[in-house]
Amino acid sequence: MNTERKTIILSGNLPIHCKDRQIGFYAPSYSSVGASMLYGSAEENRAKTTFIGISHPDGMPSYKTIQPTEFKFLPVETEKNPKDLVFSQHLSQACHHSLGRSALFPKDLEEPYNDYVQFNQDFFSALKTVYSYQDTIIILGKHLLMLPELIRKEFPLAKITLVFICPFPAYELFSCIPYSKDIMLSMLMCDRLELQSENYLENFISTAFLLVNAQTKELSEKSLEVIKGSSSLVFIEKEDAPKKSEKKSQMLPYEEEKKDMLTMLTTSYKTSFLDIEDESLLNEPINIEEHDEQAVKEYLEDTMPIVEKLSKKEENKMYVVYVGNSRALVTVASKHAPKKYIEEVQSSKQYNDILEKIKETKKDRKFVMVIETTRKVGSSAQNLLSVLKYLQKNPNSKVDFIRCVVYGESVAFHNTELSGLAEQISSLYPTRFTTIIFPTTYLYFALLELADICIAGAPTDSISLVAYEYACINRKGKLIVPYSSGIAFKHAIYTLNCPDITAEVIKNALKMKDQKEEDFLEGTDEWMRSLHHILRVDPPCGTEQIGKIPQHLAKNVLEEKESIKSAYKESKKRTIFLDYDGTLTEIVPNPKDAKPTEEILGILQKLTEDKQNNVFIVTGRGKEEAEEWFGHLNIQIYAEHGTYKKENEEWITVPCDISWKETAIKIIEEYVSYTPGSAIEVKNTCVVFHCKDHGRWCANALQRMLGTQARVVTGKNIVEVRPKGIDKGSCIEKESYYDGFTLCAGDDATDEDMFMVLLNAPDTYTICVGERTTCASLRAGSPKELRALLKSLYE
């Protein structure tokens, strides 16, 4: 068996185009994420990378041979192509906020869903022919969302990363998709999930909670560093040191046809598959006197000051989202471009010849690139209307526009309904407006390097590879993107979906001084390396039999009692973290009746008497109760999940935002009023809804109203709202637990935060009390079993 570690990339289409129905050659880097990964792969990893997908993209003829390469390509035979999957189209419409009437009157999607599952099954069958237990599987796009479940059932310990390229919609839209719960559960079976913006990340977390009650923990900067790789903790597979080799070509274009500039210019480009609501924009003559100029002027005077301040935050947030046996590391994909490939293109003679010709033609004039792709949602009439508006208002400016039509998702339909609008603009301004269809690689990058402004992205786009490449090759250029899209660049200029506004944004951008911006992009090879980073280590066994080992296997603590006791005795420094309710003591109907017994106080007293021990109570209870019950002991206490800490006889408060508290109280009080047997508990920094049944409805209401402000957690018969960024895991991160014996015990979902921080830490024993699903390494059947273990440590 071949045990070499490989990367397997699965996407709807292989990143290969066709030439003369004979030769398959690499698709342009900007045409799909798969193509960008192909060009951006590190040289030493090419032979270890396999692409799996449909053998030829939409609109492309099949090919007989493939351009020579170190990569491996595995075509998938399916009855339907991605474009034929009705369910996938419905999913795409929901993600791009264009469900329309199908949200209210959905078609019967049972058969289309079965087709979608079969499509995923066909890919899984192909995957099984090349997969081995050390491989990392990377899934791209929306067509293969049921694939993680298929993989996980047969290979429980497979390493799976999903890059979700579409926008991720809010719960209200995602729940309109039939079988949305099944899709969500499958997505959560990945080890790592990357979305394209912080807003999509928040949508995903909220939707996962509302659909399947998935709990979430935000990882701190310290946790991020641990995941990236620490000398004391091993959370990820170690990368092999790259082998030294002579410099190889970064796969420059293969036998590209030689075309002069004239053959690249055209405006006769039609299609019939683009959805545009107002067809009059495309078919009727443009009346340049249509608007009241004074009204437009007043509108712009009011609006532009706001538009000029538009910006987006870029935060490196990472969460663990967990439900059942699934624990996914969920984050925002880093912005990346195939830098080494672009550098090699720039150093080629063909590129520099084209660059000089364009400079010669350009002279003292400026030009703006307007990018249009062949994807169904990749083109916007607003961009062309903005060009028209600018030319109308600035007829004598030394600014030219190039409409550049590029491949999108490796699709090659040579049409667009925008051609009518483009032809009208060209007829009005023949020397100022030009269209280039599918430029060669050298021409494409030369245009990007010299463009003073690049307008990229559609209003519902989540990502723009062209924007990434423009930012990489032209650090002085001005990038204009729709604010409604998911594209978030530090130095991007944002516009609204209004031609008059965008025309004004273009005018203002042209006046800006050239300023070389910092390089904020990662190389695609660096990004691909991060896709291997997951929240668990390789299993100890080295054969395919690991596929039969269940995930998160927790041994019974009684079976490990002697080894724990031995490690405790041998260690000179010990740290013990203990939850209280359900862990040291049994759960009781009335929380106020759970006062510690003499047995519990005696155990804690004995443990704290040993000077080598550092004992913590980490509880969700308020500091007043914690002080009353444990204040007389020489013990450190974290109350309200870490909002308060008692150390050296003093209570310290951790700063946090509780502006949401009043709203939470109102919501919970409403549910208490019509839920028999329920009650509300108001603490200093959190609010708790106590109920045996129907807590789910209250949790959903809280998540919808407060999901972006606070953290909503469901536990045993409770729904709790507490500050973001403060949890039991953050308590542990503040303590030095790495240099000795560590024991941590808890019983419910709130304690998973502690277990995750301690995941795979050396000399550490994490214990889940009870039978629920956990990522703890050990399990105690009851608080009584845990108390027996603690007693054995000092007896």
Task: Explain what you see.
This protein is 33% helix and 19% strand. It is an alpha/beta fold and 795 residues long. It folds into 3 domains: 7-255 and 315-331, Rossmann fold; 262-285 and 341-516, Rossmann fold (3-Layer(aba) Sandwich), CATH 3.40.50; 555-794, Rossmann fold. The strands form 6 sheets. The protein has a 9-stranded mixed sheet with strand order 6-4-1-7-8-9-12-11-10, with helices on one face. A 9-stranded mixed sheet has the order 21-33-32-31-22-23-24-25-26.
User: If you compute it from the alpha carbons, what radius of gyration comes out, rounded to the nearest whole angstrom?
Assistant: 29 Å
Number of strands: 33
Distance between the termini: 51 Å
Roughly how much helix do the residues carry, as a percent range? 25-40%
Secondary structure tally, helices:
26
Which class of the largest domain in CATH terms?
A: Alpha Beta
CATH names the topology of the largest domain as: Rossmann fold
Instruction: Specify the CATH architecture of the largest domain.
Output: 3-Layer(aba) Sandwich
Tell me the fraction of residues in β-strands, as a range. Answer: 15-25%
Q: Quick one: biggest sheet?
A: 9 strands, mixed
Gross morphology: elongated
Q: Taking strands numbered 1, 2, ... along the chain, how are they ordered across the largest sheet?
A: 6-4-1-7-8-9-12-11-10
Name the CATH homologous superfamily of the largest domain.
Glycogen Phosphorylase B
